[in-house]
Amino acid sequence: MADEQTLNTQDLEEQVAPDAASGDDLAARVEALEEQLAAAQDQSLRVAADLQNVRRRADQDVEKAHKFALEKFANDLLPVVDSLERGLEMTSAEDESIKAVREGMQLTLKLFQDTLARYQLVAVDPQGEPFNPEHHQAMAMQESSLVEPNSVLQVFQKGYLLHGRLLRPAMVVVSKAPAPASPSIDEQA
């Protein structure tokens, strides 16, 4: 048995001697494998981050699709609201012969406006407000000393926002400062 242990020890020494020379080789392989592992972990983190970004973008796209799915339909309904409003403007509240028709138009318009508001479609009626080029479209400018320059004097057509995003700009007349009076020239002098 002692001979067996001596034999095993000799075998081990013979195996260790060549392995010592390959120890540097082994350390290089370990270092290479560690670098590969670090690269794989980095790539895994990048793929996970990309996947998370794709999911977030997809969720945002779905949310926007839900919010603005009514955009085309709402754009088609706005002329109906405009017509009802114009019809009410053109009729007189004192005319008894059309009083019932006028009340029906008012109720229909109110129902229509309530329905639009329920779907986050909000009217932009900027009468007297400062001009906002993001929500208003200037159709004309008019001199006025009664209001500040760049204020909305008249609204031709209301604008609308759908979930806070402009669906249709309000068409308006904007005030400007009156032109300074030109000095009168005394031509008789």
TrEMBL record:
Q: Write out the biased-composition intervals (Polar residues).
A: 1-10
Q: Which CDD domains does this UniProt record tie to the protein?
A: GrpE
Record keywords:
Chaperone, Coiled coil, Cytoplasm, Stress response
One GO BP on record is: protein folding
InterPro entries hit by this protein: GrpE, GrpE_CC, GrpE_head
Query: Which Pfam family, an example, fits this chain?
Result: GrpE
Give its localization: Cytoplasm
* GO molecular-function terms, A-Z: adenyl-nucleotide exchange factor activity; protein homodimerization activity; protein-folding chaperone binding; unfolded protein binding
Q: Does the keyword Chaperone apply?
A: yes
Spans annotated as Disordered: 1-23
A cellular component term from Gene Ontology for this protein is: cytosol
Q: What positions belong to coiled-coil segments? A: 23-50
Record function comment: Participates actively in the response to hyperosmotic and heat shock by preventing the aggregation of stress-denatured proteins, in association with DnaK and GrpE. It is the nucleotide exchange factor for DnaK and may function as a thermosensor. Unfolded proteins bind initially to DnaJ; upon interaction with the DnaJ-bound protein, DnaK hydrolyzes its bound ATP, resulting in the formation of a stable complex. GrpE releases ADP from DnaK; ATP binding to DnaK triggers the release of the substrate protein, thus completing the reaction cycle.
HAMAP family according to UniProt? GrpE
Name the protein family: Belongs to the GrpE family.
NCBIfam families, A to Z? PRK14139.1, PRK14140.1, PRK14150.1, PRK14151.1
Task: Quote the protein name from its UniProt record.
Answer: Protein GrpE
Q: Which organism is it from?
A: Pseudomonas marincola
Name the lineage. Bacteria, Pseudomonadati, Pseudomonadota, Gammaproteobacteria, Pseudomonadales
